[in-house]
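Extended Data, panel c. Modelled sequence:
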Amino acid sequence: QVQLVESGGGLVQTGDSLRLSCAFSGRAVSTFAMAWFRRPPGRARWLVASISGAGDNIVYADSVKGRFTISRDNAKNAIYLQMNDLKPDDTAVYYCAAGGLQGRTVGDYDYWGQGTQVTVFS
């Protein structure tokens, strides 16, 4: 059974950094495209960044380009999201997701973590 567990969220100030981690178990993570989504308060979940199984194709939302970095370590069955220069608009629940295709929508991913809260105050 595939499981994803996020960690690393927290309460930070504008301009701070956080690193989110997602531990993957149940199958070889290298066979999955992975992604980070976020759900801001009162809004739908949307894609922040995605990475292919081999790590050679990466996609970012325009609002996080240059500030966030997605990476994966297939040997450790983990993916990460390094978030720098955080802003209040980054406040959201962040979710790790895994799927067979590197898509942009929620429906493209088959497995989800429980989410981790990131709150950025000014």
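The mean pLDDT is 96. This feature is highlighted in the accompanying rendering.
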